[in-house]
Amino acid sequence: MALDELKIGGMGASRRRVEDNRFIRGKGRYIDDVVLPGMLHMEILRSPVAHARIKSIDTSAAWEVPGVRLVMTGETLAARNLAWMPTLSYDTQAVMATDKVRFQGQEVAAVIADDPYIAKDACSRIVVEYEQLPPIVNPEQAASPDAPLVRDDKVNQTTNKIFDWEIGDKEATDRAFAEADVVSTIDLHYPRSHPSPLETCGSIADYDRATGKLTVYMTSQAPHIIRAAVAMVAELPEQMIRVISPDLGGGFGNKVPVYPGYVISILASILTEHPVKWVEDRSSNLISTGFGRDIYLQGQLALRKDGKILGMRMHTISDHGAFYADAQPTKFKIGLMHSTFAAYDVPAAHLTSVGWYTNKAPGGVAYRCSFRVTEAMFFQERMIHAAANDLGMDQAEFRRVNLVKDDQFPYRTAFGFLTDSGQYGKCLDIALDAIGYANFKQEQEEARKRGKLLGIGISTMTEPLGAGNSREYDIIGIKMFDSAELRVHMTGKAILRTGAKTQGQGHETTWAQIVAHELGIPAEDIVVEEGDTDTAPFGMGTYASRSTPVAGAAVAMVSRKIRAKARKIAAHLLEVSEEDIEWELGRFYVRGNHERGVTIQDCALAAYSNVPDGLEPGLENNAYYDPPNLTWPFAAYVCKVEVDPETGVWDVLKFVAVDDCGVRINPMIVEGQIMGGLTEAYAMASMQYITFDEEGNCIGSNFMDYLLPTSWETPGFELHEVVTPCPHHPIGAKGIGECATVGGPAAFVNAVMNAIEHTGVRNVDMPLMPNRVYEALQTGLDVSGAPPVKGD
Amino acid sequence: MTSLYEVIPDAPGEGVPTRRVTITVNGEKKTLDIEPRLLLAHLIRQGLQLTGTHVGCDTTGCGACTVLINGRPAKSCTVLAVQADGREVETVEGLASAQQLDPIQEGFKEEHGLQCGFCTPGMMLAAKALLQRNPNPTEDDVRWALSGNICRCTGYQNIVKAVLWAADKMREQ
Predict the structure, then answer these.
(1) Which phi and psi (to 5°) does residue B121 adopt?
(2) CA–CA dist A567, B38 (Å, integer)
(3) Residue B138, exposed/middle/buried by CB under 10 A (0-12, 13-18, 19+)?
(4) Domain boundaries for CATH 1.10.150.120 within chain B
(5) Residues of chain A contacting residue B153, judged by C-beta atoms under 8 Å apart
(6) A235 CB within 8 Å of a chain B CB
(7) A17 contacts in B (CB within 8 Å)?
(8) CA–CA gap between residue A750 and residue A755 (Å, rounded)
(9) Which domains does chain A have, with CATH numbers?
């Protein structure tokens, strides 16, 4: 008889997580928990200044510290052609500085010693003489005609510009603006923000001279790409490289790039013939690893009096730091910024982008977002907010007029994306209802009379999650598909491996649910493994909310291949032709005779013990899935705040989130992703502040300066769901991990702005720290957060 | 144990000052010769190989390294191991018995109070200290008690529910 899917932990079950069993016992195995025999420890000496020529490095005192095995400088690497490495965006990045340092925190030397205390001691004895150069800390300085050249190492680089890029139809957009009744403008800075997973980055390189094999344990969200990159950089044969990404203590995009520390630890292992461990301290993580954002967003909307959007113009100016090292799809220099306004019916749009080198750590990583969509959607919802105000229209009504309607799908956006499904209006209505929008204006008026400032902010958006398809999406030429491999053992239990890499998303739990849904094997009978390039099939890893859209689809597809073979075996066992076999969850039976059947477990046993003539034994397969399109989840976030006019402090009174991510594999985990994402959205909107002074010093290089919200500050979130299945995904799912981080910030900011914009202020840049809100209230003027800030 | 890192046999011993300490960890008494500058977190993680205590920030900012010293939560990344001399330390490994999880551990799993798991041991120990002094906490009590611990994945709502779940269960027992 067909199985009850929820009882076997299939789709839709809020199955408790398998990985929790080790984590709650403190038995996770994170990078710093891995100990290899004879392992040495590496510490990196970093530049204290942002821009300087290195005049000399004296390592002699470091060598004298007992327990020191090796001291490395840029010269050590240069002698092996490893001082520079390619980035994931066709740029180059210094592994260790040879000529000059280009940001504060850049790698200058490294010590390998018997323990990390000794390595740190010895690092402090290295003497580096710097000749300081003027630092560049924002794009405006970078663009100045007399700006010093950050990348004087590059032969054809005569300015600090990295790229000029554009997309859209300029003429059609110009025509739309010519016809507009009202033109609304906005000018924003989305500040640098650091993803700060609670575990920092690190690696353990273990080169075995006897076998020629290099094993690297590494905090990587994309271990398979790293294997390819190491093969190219270190010129080692790829089959002799094994990258293992162990349990990751969060990622959020911070663990996508290839960091110099990884490469240095590999060379250190080759030179010392010992395993070498490198684990960053928090300060190193904050000042040297992948930042997100740091982009200026300027836009205009052409509007008709009745509220219809006729056209959209956008210009972005991005600060990438000293090396263009963020992973973006090759074709799209500024990621998927052109997904902006995808939820709205906009006839004409044009986007221009320019990227700059500065003397800051490499930035622009997708911090819990799909290639710049966080910036795209923040811009969109701040622009919408400003436009509604300029038209004198209600925020919700203006959105209703312009959101893509249910009967418009599939909808081709002005920038060429195809959004395929959604119920945008329904989501918005549920959110407004839950927050009590109908009575809010009256409530706000009455509160103002009592000296209280209330505000409500809306953010509605769809975003492109799950790159590829491979026609359009690749990273350094590697196409963006993903993979799964399933082996069903003869007792009907199974092991599943994928090319993705979980960092808290719960793949060990949810992938098994997909297999259970497709095959009727109970989820608890399926083990899931990821992150070891010697055992898992090649995949592009986990970021950009791509696991469920791509690897999750591969899991469904490989399960279907297994079922197709099991059907042949079932026909053999039941002695009927394959055409006479029917499937129900967990079981094949003879058409017209429901009693006569065999279970999937019977078929598994037969695959190894009673195979029909002409059929290969065994029951295993793999699937590489190249999605036909991105998935397009929708979210409506509405936030209600109260601002204290005396202090500028604001409190969230209520926050409602309505998410439509299609079919939910595990509702508990989906809700966990949304709540976590909303917390990061709140963090960016309210307090995560990491900036630079005129000297290029990073302000916010530890958790006492770079504030992350705790349980005390973080508001509660009320969640609702709408389900519009994805039409092209095998199980109807869409990405969800990043929706809340992407769409959330604008809801908070719009709410605070709504509370204070009666003073005339149009924009306060994030984070909306009380001093900024207070300043806006006092002056009625916009408050910019762009660097540099005044140093001490 | 005569060096910082027990696993390294030839670590420099000569000229390095050491001090003898006796610390009870999860009920087991350990007498160790350690460098006075050794941090408690490192002693626990490397010296005693109890790697459930995580280090996230090095500056008392994140709470991943929280352990209980004589029953009180302490961030072991900024406690010198010598300061724990003569005291009792409890780590995440001491929460469950061989047969039985602590209700706090059960609560975290039941209410989806963790994602990557890195902050979880510190969260659970901070929660344990709370529930020992206040078996019937309000949501605000829990939020305040955990406000020294940062989580980047889960977003607190479920963590708070997990602790309240555990409080309920402990009161029933």
Answers:
(1) -60, -45
(2) 62
(3) exposed
(4) 103-172
(5) 250, 504, 672, 676
(6) no
(7) 109, 112
(8) 9
(9) 20-27+482-625 (3.30.365.10), 34-133+200-248+255-288 (3.90.1170.50), 292-467+629-779 (3.30.365.10)
What's the pLDDT band for B4 if we cut at 50, 70, 90?
Answer: very low
- Token digits for A61? 């005192």
Tokens of A100: 């000059």
Domain B103-172: assigned CATH number: 1.10.150.120
State how far the Cα of A235 lies from the Cα of A762, in Å rounded to an integer. Answer: 54
pTM, two decimals, is: 0.97
Q: Of B44, B50, B66, B152, which to mutate for an interface test with A (greatest number of A Cβ within 10 Å)? A: B152
8 Å CB contact of A504 and B116: yes
CATH number at B19-94: 3.10.20.30
Distance separating alpha carbons of residues A423 and A409, to the nearest angstrom: 10
Name the active-site residue from A738, A739, A762, A772.
A738
In angstroms, the CA A726 to CA A162 distance is: 37
Query: CA angle, A285 as apex, B76 and A736 as ends, to 5°?
Result: 100
* pLDDT at B3 > cutoff 50: no
Closest CA to B105 of A426, A310, A23: A23
CA torsion through residues A148, A154, A155, A157, sign: negative
**Which two three-digit tokens encode residue A224?**
């398979």
> A368's torsion region: left (phi>0), alpha (psi -120 to 50) or beta?
left
Q: pLDDT value at position A792? A: 53
Q: From the candidates A369, A603, A639, A661, which is the catalytic residue?
A: A369
Per-residue confidence band for B13, with pLDDT thresholds at 50, 70 and 90: low
